[in-house]
Design goal:
The structure holds two protein chains of two kinds. By secondary structure, chain A is an alpha+beta fold. Chain A is built from four helices and twelve strands; from the N terminus they run E-E-E-E-E-E-H-H-E-E-E-E-H-H-E-E. Chain A has helices at 58-79, 85-98, 143-153, 160-175; strands spanning 11-16, 20-26, 29-31, 34-37, 43-47, 50-56, 106-113, 119-124, 130-133, 136-140, 185-191, 194-200. Chain A is globular and about 45 Å long. By secondary structure, chain B is of the alpha+beta class. Classes of the chains: A alpha+beta, B alpha+beta. At the A-B interface, helix 3 and helix 4 of A face helix 6 and helix 7 of B.
Chain lengths: 205, 305
């Protein structure tokens, strides 16, 4: 039997560009080898400048998304301002560590623009240990593939159009060599002027 | 026939019935370990599974009572003394004949050339044994074998192949063609189907029509001719990249035939990537370009961390 983190399958990458970030994920939902849905969302918009990608057990993906929305709403009601990506990442880390000895089986990534429109990226393991990078973060069942693609194709300070192309190629090539991810993909490009979301034409196998 | 007796064809009749006098073989080591601990300490140790194997941490529920009558049993075991299973509950560690010595190999075929590359690091666990060991081996002047895996198995496989090649040359008065060498390697690996060579191979060369050929293998000899092949610890970093750049998958621009110089540059980039993300890959990469005129070798330095 495979690991619980590989039960449903996922592939999510976030990349930083020049004053923009992009986050992309596949849309497959499977139960081990059987594909059950091709339109399962794993990247959630928290606000126009903050996205979170949740890879791992699908039930926890949806539960943690709801929990995050709840915590974010409380924060905004109390503080009367939007949560910055750094704070959000910390809140997520806290939520995960609270369940240290019975964790949520997800490995999330956070992508957003901070107050100065500079890109923010962070990744975490299932108990909330964060890592902050300035280039890219990956998570899911095809991490080896994704690291290879991103490491080779990435260059710093890409404009939104080039970032989109790079991220799309990295994700598509990675999921095509992983049985548990694929069946379509969604890419979100976040700039200070707004979010552009596109669905990629991908192999449906 | 009573209701409780299972039918004759039922598989449960073949399994040992649960009986305290008879323990099933798989459970015996764990249960005997627990019994041993219990008998010696008078208290039950919770098995903990760690990288060192199963250990027992004594959970003293009756520690107070134990201490009171402690003189008879000898010294009461300390609750914080972790026994790694060697004194109280001995277990057997299986000897593994295999070891992974690391490395990554990559081979790409072109119109009239083949490129094969491999890093030069030899490792064992987290240690580096050498920064300068080749993983490439020329079988003929038109055919090179790259192998990653267990070094001793790789060396032995090469010796066996060399001998078979020599015998072929004596019998047929010509050197082996690349497709024939590919088949021979597959057969040699399958001969050890039930105690395999721990060797993940790629074979690259020029076929009988002068075109570049690459063959990928698994450890027990299943092989096929492919446009490119990567094996070893860094293969998952390289394969999707090759899909995109060599086979032109998921791309809208036109596919074009790449010259060997460009492919060598791609190979260098790929190994830099693998060296970054894979701990077993690094130090240097040896790149061989095989054409009908022979084999040219180039060494490209990588990070040593």
């Amino acid at each position: 039997r495979m690991s619980i983190l590989e039960y449903n399958g996922a592939a999510i990458i976030a990349m930083a560009g020049k004053d923009c970030v992009a986050i992309a994920a596949d849309t497959r939902l499977g139960v081990q080898a059987q594909t059950v849905a091709c339109d399962f969302r794993k990247v959630f918009k928290m606000n126009d400048r903050l996205f979170v990608g949740l890879g791992g057990l699908a039930t926890d993906v949806q539960t943690v998304d709801q929990l995050l929305k709840f915590r974010q709403n409380l924060y905004e009601l109390r503080e009367e301002r939007q949560m910055s990506p750094k704070v959000f990442s910390n809140v997520l880390s806290n939520i995960l560590y609270e369940k240290r000895f019975g964790p949520y089986f997800i490995e999330p990534i956070v992508a957003g623009l901070d107050e100065n429109n500079k890109p923010f990226l962070s990744g975490m393991d299932l108990i909330g240990a964060p890592v902050y990078t300035d280039d890219f973060v990956v998570t899911g069942t095809a991490t080896g593939n994704m690291y290879g693609m991103c490491e080779t194709l990435y260059k710093p300070d890409m404009e939104p159009e080039e970032l989109f192309e790079t991220l799309s190629q990295a994700l598509l090539a990675s999921v095509d060599r992983d049985a548990l991810s694929g069946w379509g993909a969604v890419v979100h490009i976040i700039t200070k002027d707004g979010v552009t979301s596109r669905e990629l034409k991908a192999r449906q196998d | 026939r009573t209701a409780t007796r299972p039918p004759a064809w039922s598989i449960t009749r073949l399994l040992p019935r649960p009986d305290h006098a008879f323990r099933s073989h798989a459970m015996s080591s764990l249960m005997s370990a627990q019994q041993a601990v219990k008998a010696r300490n008078g208290q039950f140790a919770l098995p903990i599974h760690s990288s060192e194997g199963s250990a027992g941490i004594a959970a003293s529920f009756e520690h107070g009572a134990q201490a009171a009558g402690g003189g008879v049993h000898g010294h009461a075991p300390h609750a914080d003394h972790i026994d790694h299973g060697v004194t109280q509950a001995p277990y057997e560690r299986r000897f593994s004949p295999y070891e992974f010595n690391g490395g990554t190999t990559l081979a790409i075929s072109g119109e009239d050339y083949a490129v094969v590359a491999a890093d030069t690091r030899l490792s064992s666990g987290y240690e580096i044994l050498s920064r300068d060991v080749t993983k490439l081996h020329a079988l003929t002047d038109k055919c090179v074998l790259g192998s990653a895996g267990c070094k001793t198995d790789i060396d032995q496989l090469r010796s066996v192949l060399d001998i078979k090649m020599k015998v072929y040359e004596h019998n047929h008065r010509k050197s082996m063609s690349t497709p024939s060498a590919a088949q021979m390697l597959g057969n040699t690996l399958y001969n050890k189907r039930f105690f395999p060579y721990y060797s993940f191979n790629v074979l690259a060369g020029i076929d009988s029509d002068g075109k570049g050929a690459v063959y990928s293998y698994d450890a027990i000899g299943s092989f096929e001719r492919t446009p490119f092949s990567a094996s070893g610890s860094g293969q998952s970093f390289l394969i999707p990249l090759m899909d995109n750049v060599i086979s032109h998958k998921n791309r809208n621009d036109d596919k074009r035939d790449l010259p060997s110089e460009e492919v060598v540059e791609i190979v260098k980039d790929a190994f830099v990537t693998a060296g970054e993300r894979d701990i077993y890959t690094g130090d240097a990469v040896e790149i061989m370009v095989i054409t009908k005129d022979g084999i040219k070798t180039e060494t490209f330095k990588l990070k040593k961390d």
